[in-house]
Amino acid sequence: MSQRNRLASGGRIDRSRTLKFTFDGHAFEGHPGDTLASALIANGERLVGRSFKYHRPRGIVTSGPEEPCALVQLRAGARQEPNTRATVAELFDGLVATSQNRWPSLAVDIASINSLVGRFLPAGFYYKTFMWPASFWEKVYEPLIRRAAGLGKAAMEPDPDEYETVHAHCDVLVVGSGAAGLAAARAAGAAGARVILAEQDFEMGGGLLLEPQHEAWRRSMLEALSAIPDVRLLPRTSVFGFYEHDVLGAIERVSDHLPVPPDHQVRQRRWTIRARQTVLATGATERPIAFPNNDRPGVMLASAAMTYARRFGVAAGERAIVFANNDGGYESAFALQDAGVAVAAIIDVRNKAKGADAARDRGIVVRLGSEVTNVHGGRSVSGATIRSRNGGGERTIDGDLLCVAGGWNPAVYLASHTRARLRWDGGLSAFLPGTPVQAERSAGTAAGVFGIARCAADGAKAGLEAASAAGFRDSKAFDLPAPDGGDADPKVEAFWEVKAKGKSFVDLQNDVTADDIRLAHREGYTHIEHAKRYTTHSMATDQGRTSGLLGSAVLAEARGETVQKVGMPTYRPYVTPVSWGGFAGREAGHHLAPVRRTPLHHWHIRNHGIFLETGLWLRPLYYSATRETGWDPILREARAVRQNVGICDVSTLGKIDIQGRDAGTFLDRLYTNTFSTLAVGKARYGLMLREDGMVFDDGTTSRLSETRYLMTTTTAKAAEVLAHMEFLHQTVWPELDVRTCTVTDQWAQMSVAGPKARLALQGCVEGLDLGNEAFPFMGVGDARIAGCPVRLYRVSFSGEMAYEVATPAGYGERVWEAILEAGKPQGIVPYGLEALGLLRIEKGHVAGPELNGQTTAKDLGFEKMMKKKGDFIGRVSAERPALVSPDRPRLVGIRAVDPSFEKRLRGGAHLVEKPDSKKSLGWATSITRSVELERWLGLAMIRQGPERIGQRLYATYPLKNEVVEVEICSPHHVDPENLRVRA
Amino acid sequence: MLRINCPFCGIRDEAEFKFGGDASVKRPPADAGAEAFYLYAYERDNPKGWYVEWWHHVAGCRQWLKVVRHTVTHDIAQVAKAGDAVSVPQS
C-alpha cells in the first residue's frame, strides 16, 4: 500500500497533490511539504543507509539538519549529490535517491562483516593498523579504506548548474525563524533597522510548525515582516559560519527543491553578510542516550518522531517505546498517541516524573527508575530489553519505534565561532552561549529559554536590544503569544549512558562507541580535543550536533570529572555542509581567474596565434596557419629574426611611470646599479635585489626627462615590483619626492628585432633619425608611425639589432600592421613566446628559470652591476659569506657536443662528471634547440661554473634515462662581443 | 574576514588588502652592518596578542597601512597611515 504510515489527517503537507520519487529504484509517493525522510517513513522505509565503519544498518534518527545517519545520494548523472541529509531534502516530483556505503545492496552488505570483527577496528585503528610497511599505504591500504569507508560518490561530470555569491549589509541579522527569531526580526524591523532573517528550513516558523494553536500568530508575524520593506526573509538559507568582525556566511538553497533550476536561476547562492548586530535564534537539538544497539533503524529522537507526526502527518512506527531522562519525552509520547501511534511504555531513568500520572491516565505504562539495556531487531527495531536501575530482572517490551529523549543541546555553534565561551547550565545539563565577544546575542531556546511564549518574549527583547545597539531605538510593540502553561519542564536528569553489554554509540555517523572514548582515555587521549581526533567522535559532517555532549560525558566519567570541566571540542565553521559550487559561485571554469589580453590580442587570433596562458596573460606561443608541428614554427620564426627581422608582442612587460625630483635617487636605491647619472633619452639595464641579497627582478629603465623615468619589469613580477616600490617609498624613504604608477595596460609594446630591423622601421617611422649614430643602442626617442605617436627604445632581448616600439594601447594594432607592411621587403614575420625564449637563451639573457629567487647577482655574472658607493636594497645581505662563496652554482652555457637534434637536452637535467654519476654539479635551467648552432643548448647553474668553461660534462635526466654529453661554455652562445645589437 | 578601516577609503574587506608582515621592524641605516640587516631580513616576533603589521591596500588606494591587530581575537585596535605612530594596547 502506498504511504502506509501516512496518518489520516494532520500535518503541513498538501494532500491534494502527489509527488513521485524513487529510492534505490523502488517507486514511492509523497506530498508537497514532505522531506525525503518524511516521505520514506510514510512509505515504511526504515533502512536507509549503512554506517561508515561497521556498515551497520541505519535508519532516520532526526527530522532536521543534525541528521547523522540518513545520508543519501540525491539525483543522478551530473547533478548527483552525495551525503545529502534526507531530513532536509525537500521532496519534489521525480526525485531520485539512492542509499550509500553499501555493496552489493542495502539489505545485504558484505562489509558489515566489519561489524563482526569490530574488536579489531578499535578507536585509532587507522593510526595503529596501517602504519607498515610504508609502501603498502599507497597500494593496499588507501584503496581498501577508500572503497570500504567512502560514503557517497561525487559526480564525475561537470556541474551543469550555476551558483552565485552575494554580498549584503544589514543592521540586524536574525538566524532562525522560530518564535524567538520571528519576534526578534519584527522588533528590529519595526525600529527601522535593515533586517535579514535567515531560516535553514523551507518553511518559516521553527518549533511553531509543531504548534497548531500558534499558527495564526506565526502567519500574522510573517505577514507583518513581509510588509516591512527593509526586512528580507531568506528561507532555505543556512548560516554556516560566524567570522571575525561580524561577517557571517550563509548558503541559500535556491533551487535544490526543484528537479532542475528554472531558466536564468541559480542552484545555490552564497551570502557574505556584514551585520552590525546579530540575533542567534537557532533553537536546540534533542540529544540521544547511549545504550547497546542504539543505532538500529527505528531508534529515533523523541522530538523527531513527534515532528514526523505533527508536521508531516506520518507515523514513524506503530508501537513506540519512549526512553527519557526528562519531561520532553512525555510530550512526544502524548503527541504520538494523539496521532494514533500506540505507546507501549515510557522508560524514565528518573524516580519521579511530573508527567507520569498524566501518562498513566492516558493508559501508558510508565516505568520510573528504569533504563533500556538492549534493542532487538537487526534491520528494524522489534523491541527492547529494559531493567530497573535499582536492580531486579530484565524484561522485554515489543515495539517498532524506540524514541529517545536525552535532553536538549541549545544550538550554540555560531556563537562558539566567535570564540564566546560556553556556559554550563546544570538544570538543562547542557552548554549555553556565554558572554558574547562580537556583536551578537542568543535568544530563545538557543539561549536555554523553553516554551513558545517565553521564546517569543525573549526574541522580542533581543531584537530590540540589537536594533538599539545598531542605532535604532524606537520600535513599535506587537502582540506576543500568551503563555499557555502547557510547556514541558526542560530540566533533565544528567543521565548519558546505560552500562550494559553491546555497542553503545555516541557518534552514529562516525561509528564511535562509548567504549572507544574510554579506550582513548586509557591510551592517554584524555583531553576532549585529543579524544575527539583519536576516535573521530563528532568529526563527521553532522559535527556531533546530536551526540557531541554524550562523548564529553563519557570522557568526563572516565576522567572522574564533571562534564563542564571536560567541555566540548571547539566548534568551527561550517555548521552545516556547504557545496563546492556555493563557494565557487560564478568563479568557475574560465571565470576562475581574470584573463589579461594584450592590445594586439585580436590581431593574434586573426593571424593564427597559438596561445598560452602565462599567469593571467594570454600570449601567442607562435603563429601557424599550416599544419606545422613541434618545433617547426618556432625554429622558422627564430630563423627569421636571426636572418632578417621579426616582430613580437611584448606588451605584457610591466611598465611603471616614476616621476619626481628624487626619482633618480629612488631608482639608485632600488637597483644595484646607478640611474641618477643616466642621460635623458637613454635606457639602461637594471638589476633589483631583495633585501636578503637575492635577485628580485630585472629590466630596462629609460629616462624621459630630468624628473621622469619609465621602468620595465618582467611580465611575472610586474605587480610585485610596484608593491615593493610603494612599500619602500611609503614606509622607508617617505622623504623622497617621487610618485609611481603602473602604466602596463596603457601601452602596446612590440619588439622589432633582426639584422634588417632598422630597414624595416625606416619604412614607417617618421620624425626620428634611426641611423646608428643618431639613435644608438640604448637610445630612446619619440616618433610617429602611421600617424600614431610611438616611443622607440633601442633595446634587445634576442641579441639582434632591435627596437621596442611602444604606442598608446588603442593604436597598437594600427602601428603593428604598419610595421608589418613596411617590413615586407625585408621578409618580416611575427614571432611568439617560444621563439622569444629560444633567442634569449641563445643570447644568454636570464629570465624566470634563472631569476628563481635563489640566485645572487654574482651567481648570474652580474657582480659588476653592484655599485660600490651608496645604499641599495640587498647590498649588505648580498655580501654574506655564503652568498659570495666560490662553491655556489653559477651561470654558464651548455651545449650538446653532438651537432644534431638527436639526443635531447632538458631543463632540470643535472650536470655530472661521468654518465652514471649521481653527484650533481648543478642543473640546466633553460634549454632550447638552437637555430644559430643547430644543436641543443642552454643555460645552467653549475658549481664553479665559469672555471669549468671548456670542460665536458654529462646532462643526466634519470626520469627518462637520458644522458647527453655537453660542453660548458659562456652563456652567450650568440655574439658574445655584443656587436649585432650595436650595428 | 577582517574589515579594515582604511584611513583613506573607509571600512573595506580584507579581500582588498594584502598582508605585509611585521610593521615594527625598521630598515637599518646603510652602514649598520651585516648583523643588523640579517635581523631586519629574517628575525620576526610571533606574538600571541597585539601585533603591528603592514597591510597593503592593493585593490584600493595602494597605500601601506599600519594595522594593530590581536593575533588571537583578530580585533583591530587601530589602522594608521604608514608614517603615523600607533599605540599598542597593553592587554
Number of domains of chain A: 7
Protein structure class of chain B: mainly beta
Beta-strand residue percentage of chain A: 25-35%
General shape of chain B: globular
> Could you give the count of β-strands of chain A?
49
| Separate helix tally of chain A | 23
CATH domain class of chain B: Alpha Beta
The CATH architecture of chain B: 2-Layer Sandwich
- The CATH homologous superfamily of chain B is termed Folate-binding superfamily
Explain how this protein is built.
The complex is a heterodimer of chains A (983) and B (91). Chain A is built from 23 helices and 49 strands. Chain A is elongated, with a radius of gyration of 37 Å. The termini of chain A are far apart. In chain A, 22% of the residues lie in helices and 27% in strands. Chain A folds into 7 domains: 1-156, Ubiquitin-like (UB roll), CATH 3.10.20; 163-284 and 411-469, 3-Layer(bba) Sandwich (FAD/NAD(P)-binding domain); 288-406, FAD/NAD(P)-binding domain (3-Layer(bba) Sandwich), CATH 3.50.50.60; 500-570, Arc Repressor Mutant, subunit A (Orthogonal Bundle), CATH 1.10.10; 605-624 and 633-652 and 746-839, Gyrase A, domain 2, CATH 3.30.1360; 654-745, Alpha-Beta Plaits (2-Layer Sandwich), CATH 3.30.70; 886-982, Elongation Factor Tu (Ef-tu), domain 3, CATH 2.40.30. In chain A, α5 (179-190) packs parallel to α11, α7 (302-310) packs parallel to α8 (328-338) and α12 (514-522) crosses α13. Chain A has 983 residues and is α+β, with helices and mostly antiparallel strands. In chain A, the strands form 12 sheets. In chain A, strands 8, 9, 10, 11, 12, 13 and 26 form a 7-stranded mixed β-sheet that branches. Chain B has 91 residues and is mainly β. Chain B has one domain (3-81): Folate-binding fold. Chain B contains 1 helix and 6 strands. In chain B, the strands form 2 sheets. Chain B has a 4-stranded antiparallel β-sheet, with no helix packed on it. The longest helix of chain B has 9 residues, at 34-42. Chain B is globular, with a radius of gyration of 14 Å. The two termini of chain B are 23 Å apart. Chain A binds chain B through residues 243-247, 272, 274, 419, 437, 691-692, 723, 726-727, 730-732, 734, 870-871, 875-877, 879-880, and chain B through 1-3, 18, 20, 23, 27, 30, 32-34, 36-38, 40-42, 54, 56, 58, 62-64, 73-74, 76, 82-83.
